[in-house]
Structure formats: structure tokens, C-alpha cells
Amino acid sequence: MRIRFERVTQRYDGLALFTDLDLEIPSGRFFTLLGPSGCGKTTLLRMLAGFVVPDAGRVWFGDRDVTVLPVHKRAIGMVFQDYALFPDRSALANVMYGLLARGVAAKEAKSRAMAMLERVGLGAFADRAPATLSGGQRQRVAMARALVIDPELLLLDEPLAALDVKLRVELRAMVRELQLESGITTVFVTHDQEEALAMSDVVAVMDRGRIVQMGAPQEIYAGPVNGYAADFLGSANLVPSGDGKHRVVRREEIVIGEGELPGVIEAVEVRGSITGYRVRTALGVLHVDTWSVQHGRAHERGEEVMLRIPADARVVDGK
Amino acid sequence: MSAILKMRRDPAWTAVMIAGFAILGFFLVWPLVTTFAYSFRGKDGGFGLGGYATFFANRGYRDSVWNTLILGGAVTVTSMIIGGALAVLVARCRFPFAGWVAVLPLVTLVIPDVVVAAAWTLILGQQGILNAWLEPTGLQIGSLYSWWGLIFVMTLNSYVYAFVMIYVGLRAVDRNLEEAAMSLGQPLARVLTGVTLPLILPSIFGAALVVFTHVIGSFGIPAILGPRMPVLAVKAYNEFVSELGGNPQMQTIMASLLVMLGVAMLAAQKLAIERRQYQMESGRAPAPIAISGVPAMIAAAGVVLVVVLSLAPAVVAVVTAFTPARGPVVNYGGFTTVHMASAMGKSMQPLWNSLSLAAVATLAGVIFSVAVAYLVVKRRSALTRTLDVMVMLPLTIAGTVLGIALVNTFNTGWLVLTGTWMIMALAYFLRRIPNSVRAAEGPLHNVRDSIEEASVSLGVPPLRTFFKVVLPLIGPAVAAAAVLMWVTSLSELSATIVLYYGGMSTMPIEIFQQVDSGRLALASAYSCILMLAIFVPLAIAQWVFRVKVDVAQ
């Protein structure tokens, strides 16, 4: 189902959050709204759910105008950051909840819910109360609860933010897999650029109520349209190139140890597979990422090195 | 604009809100407004202060204002001292018998005002137990029907509120704050006055307000012990029932003054607390320090004394109920079941009346309170905040005042309630909703919005979501509030005394009348039956259904 925001305006405490925003979300794709807190991404998601009604403009689900349609009449599945499981119901009862609300017979609801729990790897935990499950398990139950009702639209509100790093990586793969299997149009909200790039078909980078750039992960990572997008996705170096413009140079694009730009290493940060350097040069402070192992010789703090910046780097406006 | 839009998208709860405003507006605000308006009516029928001029020109009326202020002030001070000291001792020190305070809230619930007054008459009255003991020595204690007697008994009936509120405030102080202050080199005494005291000031002001409004609104004890220094609540009642048909405007003036006093106190407390309201991280409370030797003995003796004095009325009532007596003269040492048998025979109708009125009021009150609490917590807007303030209004209104206002408003017109059981149930309902709403609000704050949103997003409409998801989660707290509402309605006297009519007498009314006519032993027998009727459901709720009933609510 194709989703469309049409000239949506929303004010919050007298301040305009969106003004005449247009946005189209392609059918069956994993679409991510990426931006810092306060950029409006969650409000857009809540408009799709129906919890927020825009002050002006329309929201379309395919050919249906759903702008003022109540939440419970939209066929959506939603996953919340704090899991929002019903604490007095078992994992199975949580997953059955939406089915029973739709009038599915108890027996069928149970078998469908059970199948979904097994799909997310929690078949053995069906009778457990949410309080006895780990954070990752709870989020899987929440995912199963949202998907079991075969929603037209899946809404994910920072569902991985409350989990620790390892679980997050594991779960995001599962979420993506589930989405690909079901082919449900999915809108995902996050402030984590790695998550956004790893999971999405399309990423929309947001800044203060505007969509700054939208495209496939590879496309926007390689070709940020401005300094903000470049910086938010992968913390690029912005090298001044005269008349207020900058060249976007990705950290891993800079070669260290050879080249024509001299610099002094100010800090070394070993992050596992990647080693980062902070280098002071005539063009300003540059961040350089290198493979920790492949790289022949590690450099030290205070060492003078030569750098090479690729000549074909993209030029963007401002910062 | 957006608030209205929001409401249109939420028709079910909007309807509930309109119903809430309608009920409170019609049954609470309207009677109060008409009472106020009547008190300000001049001779020509327009606005005038003539009534108030007449009122304050009359020594008797003037004195009743003073008596009210003196009693309110004095009992607030004594209750804060006793309740506060007890709270500090128990919250911060460990000593023998400290655990005894746990029974105090229950004791307060189970022993109605009117029983307390009757029992202390039996103990300290002219022909009371104490004077009988002192007789051989030729000594006699001063009259109980005096300021000291009134203040003494009122204090015993009020300090528990101060104790519970200050205790809760003290236990909410995060120990890390005190430890941080001490780690910065401050001695403990300075920490307690400089760090802890400011943090519990809101509790202290809150406790003082509750005690003061409780005292100026109480009827049973001042009516029985204070005929020589009538307070407003008692005087208004006397005028109301006067055969000579006392001046009706004077009644409304007394009622208005009591309401103004209550509202003024509430405003003063709000002002005092406003700038002192801190958002405290709820951490662990400081551990009580073990004390020993003489301080521990003094503390233990204090706790035991307070508990014994609080329990004494129940014990005296039980003993007296089985003691031969002739009028007010009770012959202790003897045994008889005459009073009990007589009470059993005659109390069934009033007991039934009390139970059924309380049940009706509780049923209505629980539904109303849960609905209003939900609106206040989960549908925050200027309108629901107004509703919240309106719901708290009865806290500042003496039962007698509410009774008079209701009787006068609903005795004519298209809805006549005066002289029906409904007006009594209505008064119980109104008097208890502030506490019930607060009790329901607490657990609602703990139900995260996302849980409801999850249910709605799964296709369950908002109102059904409330019943399926929210209600089960707040159920236990609501049950506790219901039990509390029911048992406190059983001992309601101050509004009932104005509202009851032949055939609709309640247990507290019967006890009050027996005391009034000097049949103290019979009053004790009635008291035993009433206390049992309160204690049994409380005990069942607390120990069988594990419902935590808490007077602090």
C-alpha cells in the first residue's frame, strides 16, 4: 500500500513543526525516517497511526483519505520503543489480542499467534508473563503481536533503541527478514544512522520538520546533498573549498601514510575492526578511519603523517 | 481549537467528561452557589451585606466563628506535634514497640467520631471511670465539656492524618540526598534541618491543611463535648433544626463562612507549596537508626501511650456495652447483655440503612472516580484540570454545610430529593469522591500511554481498550478505594444529621441520639455493632483479598 502525505502542516506549542510537507512512501518497502530527536519523525509516524491529526493537509493510504480516520479503524501494526506489552497477559495472550479484537475465533487465533511466536523464536515462551522476559524477547513478542494481524502498514517507533548493542544488531536482522517475508509496507523511525542504512530500502533524512534527502542507503551515503545529511550519515569530513562551499570527504576515503597533505595525529582510537585517527592539517581537523589489521603500521599520537584526499569528492552547500 | 478537534475524535470520553461536569455542576456547585447567593441577599432581594452585618453584630454568631478558629488552630497545632513527632520517631529510629503504629490508620477507620466522643465521656465525664477511681482520694478532674476536653479528644481523632502524611513524606526522601549532604561535611543536625526539612515541607503543609479542614468540618465530637462553645458546624445545625425556625439566612452565612475558611486554607496551602514542589527521584528511604537506653524507653512509652489512647474508645465501648447502667451512670464490674440485646433488636433497620446507603454511594462513587481520574491523568487539558479542581471541592466543605446546601436546593423545583434516601446517598458520594479520585489517579499514572496505544492500534476502540487493558491494571487500587469509601460512609454523621428523616436513621445517628439522651451504655452497644460492621469488611478486604486499604489516600 502506497502512503502519501499531502501538504501536511502541523504546529506544536505555536511553533510550526511541518509546513506543507509532501512525502510519498512506496508500497511494500522498508522506509526509514532518520533524524535527531525533535526533527518531527515520530510525529509523522503517529500521524500514520492516527494518534496525531495534522492541522492541515491530508494523509493517504493508497486511494483512501485516512487523515481523520480513528486509530482502531486503520489496519496497522505498531511496535513501540518501550514494548508496550500488556503486563497482565502472557506472551501468547498478547499476540492473540489483536486477532480476538478482529473477531477471529479463539482456536484459530491461538494457532496463528503460536505460529507467529515460533517464527520470532519464542515458541517456548508462550505462557510467560512479559515481566519474566528479557528486553529482546519482549520486543520480539511486540513484533509478533503487530505482525500477526496482517497489517496493511507496519509502524516501528525506535523499537531497538532500548536494547544493548549486540541484541540490537541481532534483532534488526530479524525485523528486516520478517518485513521482506511479509512484504508489508513498513515505516521505521530511528536516530541511529547505522540502523537506518542497514535495514532500509529507502531512507529519508529529516532536519527540523523537513525532509533533507531521500533515497536508497547506498545513494545517500555516497551522495549527501548537503553538509547536514553528510554529517548525520557517517560523520563525514567537510573540507572547505572556497565561497562557502565544502567538499564531503568520508573518513574511510582518506589515505593515511602517503599523499600531499601534511598533518599531525592528535588522537588514536582503536574501535575493533576500524582504527580512527584525528589529524590536524592546514584544512582543519580531519577524521580518518582505517582497517585495524590490513593497515601495515599503526600510527601514534603526535606523529607527523601525510594524507591523500580524493580529488573527486562531492561539493555541497554550507554546513 | 485543537482541543475541540481532539475531543471530536474521542467521542466516548468527551461524553464522560460532559457527564462529569453535569453531575458536579448540578449536585455540588449549584447548591453551593445558591447557598452563597442567599447569604449575600439584601433586604430588597438584591445583593447586600445586611445578613453578614446582622451576623457579626450578634455575639452568639461571632463567638461561633471564633470558637471554630480557636478549635481548628489549637487541634492543628497539637495534632501536628503529636503526629509529626510520631512520624519522625518511627520513620527514622528503631526501638521497641515502634511497629505498633501500624494499627493506627485502621483504628481511626474503625472507630467513628461519635463513638470516640461517647467513649471519652464515659472515661473522663463527670461520672466517668477516671473520676470513679479518683473518688477515694477526694480529687476530681476538670470538666470534659471544656476547651481542654474538646481539644484533647479532637486531637486524638485527628493526629493520625498528620502522622500518616508526614510519615509518607519522610519515607519518600531519598537517602542519597542526605548522604550527599553529609559527604560534603555537614553534621547530621544541619542536614536534617537544611536538607530533609525543606523536602518534607509540602507534606507538612498538606497535613496541616487536612487536619484543619477536618476539625472545622467535624460535627460529632464538638456537638457532644462542646455545647458551651458551639462551633460553626454545630451552630448551623442547631439553627437548622430549631423549632423556632431560626433565621435561614444565618444558616447560609455560617455555611458560606465555613466554605470560605476551607477554600482560604486550601489556597494558602497551594501558595505555600507551589514554590516548594520538588520532583524527587524516588530512591531508597534512609534506614532507621537503632536507639537504646532512656531515649528508646521514652520513644516506646510515647508510641504505646498514643496507641492505647487511640484504642481506648473501642475497648471502653465494648466493656460498657456489657455493663449494667441506669441512664448515664454505668456500674462497672457488673455484666449484662440487656443493652446488647436491645441494640440488636432495634439496630437492624438503621444498620441496614447505613449499609445500603454506603453501598449505593460507593458504587456510584467508584464509577465516577475512575472515570474522572482517567480523564485527569490520560486526557490532560484545561477542561479536565478544571474537573480535577471541582472534584476536590468537597474536601473544603463541612458535612453539615453540604447537607444544608443540598436540603435547601433540592426541596422544591422539578427535582425534589429532600426527604428521600437519594439525597443521603448523594451526600456520601460527594463527600468521598475527592479521596476516591486521588486513589484512582495514582495507579493510572503508572499505566504507560503506549500500552493503551498498542491496544487501539490493534483495533480495539478507546473505550473498550479502557475496560480491557486499563481497568484490570488499576483494579486492586480501585477495590481498595471502594472499601475505604464504603466503610467511611458507614460512619458519616455530619451530613446525615441534617439529611436523615423518619425511617431513614443510620447507625451514627442512633449512637448520637443515645449519647444525647444520656443512654451511654446503649450507645456503646450500638457502637460495637457499627465498629464490627466496619471492621469485618475491612479485615476481609485486607487479609482475604489482599487489598491494601490506606487512609493516607
Description of the structure:
The complex is a heterodimer of chains A (about 325) and B (about 550). Chain A has helices spanning about 40-50, 90-100, 105-120, 135-145, 165-180, 195-200, 215-220, 225-230, and strands spanning about 5-10, 15-25, 30-35, 55-60, 65, 75-80, 155, 185-190, 200-205, 210-215, 235-240, 245-250, 255-270, 275-280, 285-290, 305-310, 315. Chain A has about 325 residues and is an alpha+beta fold. In chain A, helix 2 (about 90-100) packs across helix 3 (about 105-120), helix 2 (about 90-100) packs parallel to helix 4 (about 135-145) and helix 3 crosses helix 4 (about 135-145). The radius of gyration of chain A is 23 Å and the shape is globular. The two termini of chain A are about 35 Å apart. In chain A, about 40% of the residues are buried. Chain B has about 550 residues and is mostly helical. Chain B has a two-stranded parallel ribbon. Chain B has a two-stranded antiparallel sheet with strand order 3-4. In chain B, helix 12 runs antiparallel to helix 13 (about 250-275), helix 15 (about 340-380) packs antiparallel against helix 16 (about 380-390) and helix 20 packs antiparallel against helix 23 (about 520-545). At the A-B interface, strand 6, helix 2 and helix 4 of A face helix 1, helix 19 and helix 20 of B.
Number of helices of chain B: 23
**Strand arrangement across the biggest beta sheet of chain A:** 6-7-8-3-9-10
Runs of chain A in which pLDDT lies below 50 for 5 or more consecutive residues are none
- State mean pLDDT of chain B (0 to 100 scale): 87
SS summary, helix count of chain A: 8
